[in-house]
Structures are given as C-alpha cells and as structure tokens.
Write the structure tokens for this entry.
Amino acid sequence: MSDGLVLPSYRRPDSVHPPLNSPEYRSSQLRAPLRPLVPMPQWLTEVTGPLLGAERVTAADADLTTRHAGEPIGERVVLTGRVLDSDGRPVSGTLIEIWQANAAGRYNHPVDNHPAPIDPNFDGGGRCVTDSEGRYKFVTIKPGPYPWRNHHNAWRPAHIHFSLFGRAFTQRLVTQMYFPGDPLFAQDPIFNSVPDPKARERMIASFRLDQTVPDWALGFEWDIVLRGRDATVFETRADV
Amino acid sequence: MGDVTPSQTVGPFLALGLPWPDGPFVVPQGTPGAFTITGRVYDAAGDPVPDALVETWQADERSRFGHPDDPRGAASSAVPGFRGFGRCPTDAAGEYRIVTIRPGPLPSPGGGTEAPHLDVSIFARGLLDRLVTRIYFPDEAEANAADPVLAAIAEPAIRATLIASPVEGGGPGRFRFDIRLRGERETVFFDV
C-alpha cells in the first residue's frame, strides 16, 4: 500500500554542530544527555514541518528601533541576508525570530541581573518572513557584550539569537549571529563549541559599507544555511 | 554540504523572542476532542528546568500534513484551525503544556506503519543543539508494538520513556509526558 512512498532526504551535516556534551560550557553538564542519540529515519513527520509565514508577523516586527516613544540607545544596524539550503536554494516565505541584549549588554528579562541599564526604548525581540529570494531584513541596534558566570571573567561576545524553521522538521535551527572582529571570541565556550573553525566563521556577519545607510545606520550581512536534500533521492524508490 | 550554519544554544532569555500567546494550541481552544499533554523537563540533578522551550509537530486526525512534500499530497485537516505545530516555554516549575488532537497513524517507506506520534524539539540553556524526541500514546499498545522507530530501541525501560502516561483523575484524554534531559532515567533523544 505504501510501497513507493518516496520521501526527500535531508543530509546530516558532518562536524558542523557543537557536541551536546561540551564541558567548557558548564550548563551543558547538567542538561546534555549522556546516552548516544538514536538514529531516526526521516519519514513523513520529519520531512514536513510547520510553514509559518506572513500570518505570524506585522511589518513593524522587523524594526526593533521604532516600537517605543523614543529611540533605543546604541549603534543603529541594518541587518540583511538570505536563508538558503546547503544546495544554494533560497528558503522563501519562512519565519525568522530574533532576540538580543540592548546596547549595554542587558536583556529586558527578569532573570538577567547584569548591573547594566535597561533601555526603556528597547525590548529586544523581532521577527520577519523571508521574501521570494529568501531575503530578510531587520533594523536594530548592536547588542553589547555581557559578563556571565561560566568561568572567571567570562564575557559573551555581542550576538543576536536567530530561530529558523525552514520547510521541514529536519531543518529547524536555532543559532546566534556574531559581529566581525570581536575580541571576545577566543574565550567564549559557546562560540568555540563549534569544533570546525571554518564553521565558526559562518556564524559571523560581514560589515557592508554598500549596505550602510549614510548618516543613519551601519550595514551588516549574514546568510543562514539550512540542511539541503540528497540530490539522488527522487531516483531511489524505497519500495523494498 | 559542509556549509550549514552551526547551531547555538537558545540561552536563558528565549522568552524575549520565542513564546507566542497561542503557542500551546495545536488546535484552537475549545476544539471538540482536544486534549492536553502536560509534562515537566528535568535536569541531571532531578531539578525542573524553568527556561526550556518544547515544540511539537504532528499529522492531523486523518494522518495527513498540510505540506507539499507529503507525496500523498498536501491536505488540510477537517478540524478548523489545526496548525500541527505547538510551542510552549516551561514555567518556574519546569512545566509545559500542549493542547492538541490525536494524529492518525502514518505509512512509512517499506510498507510499515508508524503509530500515532508527535515529534518534539527541546531547546534550553545548556543545550548547544536542540534535542529531538517523540511522544507516543499509552492506549495504542498494538500500534506502538508495530512502530518501527520504537522497535529500534531494544531496552523496554528506555523505550518506555517515549510513551506518555494517562493522567489519573485528570479526566479522559489527558496525558503526561515528562522529559529527563540527562541521568539514569534519561529520555530517548534522536539524531534526525
């Protein structure tokens, strides 16, 4: 009956993602599982996924600088890029959600007790949907670095959290975008949890003078690449 | 293929970006036949995890997905407002809840049948990548016994971590699914 149910197959990226057990990142030692992950087939539930798009956003959600009576303190940033899969195909109409600290390195969250000021004009959350070429655009301010308690004198490099769905459960990704040239990279166990230095580089945005808006905002560009599909999949019938 | 963007942790402040007011509702509030799956996320010390996010994805009641990559064709549910997707941050007690309907069984390549299940992603501070697990139903013994994903887990006690429990005295169709991130009774997590 289900003979001939032919499904796409998403490639498992090799040594791209951080190992769950990364002792230098202390919180992982209470929360990362000890047993090896069980390989799971990619069947109907895995090759489909929520196609969340325009119904979840308004145009104002992509501009984090205009939600309040005044403007937030900080370096204004226009952040653009594309969401692609690893075959270079754009992922269009997909929801992106972001959250970040303010320019002083403080999150507008009750658990953040870093003694830096809350900015009454900045809440730090945003969302948008990619266009037909997979492009997105946010207007925000550059987040500040902040101290945390992972080890003595530990500081997180400036970063923006990104959440992406892609088109399938297999493509779901939550990551962080960093800014180029940050002197805090070398001591950060979260950034360095990614074993391959080239893969780490892919989390760093590029400064773009050509996308910098004169007299107004710095331009940064960052492309996000989700898992691609096996090219041969549609030739392989699984009707064993 | 090596150019995939690496995963990073959601950190402790995901509440600024990810929760939605309607997140837990896979089907709208008041949908006939809808039930609640509640559960608690625990760490290695047995303490509740108050800063996690649990997401679910599932087929509809007729075993279909509103998605073009389902080779049987995209189909919309007969249940108005069915979204298939649920999302809930854990509260101070580490608890989440999802309001949904039971998915139908699914055909799998090779001719087997997957028992009704929800795919689950768990995000939290301390997790550098999401964890993936599945929720199966306790009153589907026959279907669960024939499920190829469950069958691949040899040890019954470990397999049992994927099956929700009925909530005693909680009324019909209420389920509990606790998630133990690490330790002796650790939940099964998958590499998808």
